[in-house]
Amino acid sequence: MATTVGKSALLIGATGQTGQQILRDLLQSPDFAKVGEYGRRVTDKSALPASGVDKLVQRTIDFENLEEAGLKEHKWDVVFIALGTTKKVAGSAAAFEKIDREYVVNAARGAKSDAPDQRLVYVSSIGADASSKFLYTRSKGLTENALASLGYGDTIIFRPAFLAGTNRDSIRLGESIAALVLPIVSYFSNNAQIDISTLAKSVVAAGKLGSAALPASAMASQVGKNGASFT
Predict the structure, then answer these.
(1) Counting beta carbons within 10 angstroms of the beta carbon of residue 54, is it exposed (0 to 12), middle (13 to 18) or buried (19 or more)?
(2) How far apart are CA 168 and CA 179, in angstroms?
(3) CA–CA dist 52, 49 (Å, integer)
(4) 22-49: buried (b, 16+ CB within 10 Å) or exposed (e) per residue?
(5) Which has the closest alpha carbon to 112: 72, 144, 146, 60?
(6) Catalytic annotation on 187?
(7) Catalytic hit among 112, 136, 152, 208
(8) In three state form, how does the secondary structure of the chain look?
(9) CA dihedral of 138, 144, 148, 152, whole degrees rounded to 10
(10) CB atoms within 10 A of CB 169
(11) Is 140 a catalytic residue?
């Protein structure tokens, strides 16, 4: 896939903090002619910039019944997934893993076409590790491995650290402390935090360019084994 000019993009998880910004960037990007927003809820169009909204296709779907979701009705060139949650929001460890891993993997599987150059871009988390003893990072690691094994032509996974510039209705104590401390830590390390707008732009750019064309400044690396690897 040398270029994505005039191509189509599907976004799963557009109502979260990161997903909202990715959706806006996709709609304003000249590289994508059609943008699908599929999820349990969809964005109110009046909250989006007028430019680009004409290429938006929205559909409310049931993740427990993806066969009826119509994910394969369009041949998506790039599938973006920013769906995720926390144990606190989900209500239990089991519910968290269902949303954070099962829904994500099943949606990616459902949106996969037979095109050999179809691309998948997933927003994971720093510390993702399938063997981690911590629920959150273990779930992210297992999700990454499962996505890599689906057979997309190109799989790109982002592992952002603390997200700066979010606008949550309720601020978690840990995030409040981190928001004060991490700007200082960032003076010594570039990996401590990333502004959410920068992350979204990077995600959209990766979807456009693909692994092979990522700039050296992205410091991307290949992870996993043959047949189940990702960038």
Answers:
(1) exposed
(2) 13
(3) 7
(4) bbbbbbebebbebbbbbbeebbeeeebe
(5) 72
(6) no
(7) 136
(8) CCCCCCEEEEEECCCCHHHHHHHHHHHHCCCEEEEEEEECCCCCHHHCCCCCHHHEEEEECCCCCHHHCCCCCCCCCEEEECCCCCHHHHCCHHHHHHHHHHHHHHHHHHHCCCCCCCEEEEECCCCCCCCCCCHHHHHHHHHHHHHHCCCCCEEEEECCCEEECCCCCCCCHHHHHHHHHHHHHCCCCCCCEEEHHHHHHHHHHHHHHCHHHCCHHHCCCCEEECCEEEC
(9) 150
(10) 4
(11) yes
Determine which one of 7, 112, 140, 208 is catalytic: 140
How do the pLDDT tens digits run along the chain, 231 residues long? 444 458 999 999 999 999 999 999 999 999 999 999 999 999 999 999 888 999 999 999 999 999 999 999 889 999 999 999 888 999 999 999 999 999 999 999 999 999 999 999 999 998 899 999 999 999 999 999 999 999 999 999 999 887 765 555 444 444 443 344 334 333 333 455 788 999 999 999 999 999 988 888 777 777 776 666 677
Rg of the chain over Cα atoms, rounded to whole angstroms, equals 17
- The encoded tokens of residue 65 equal 């019944």
Token output for 159? 């592992």
User: How is residue 215 written in tokens?
Assistant: 């700039």
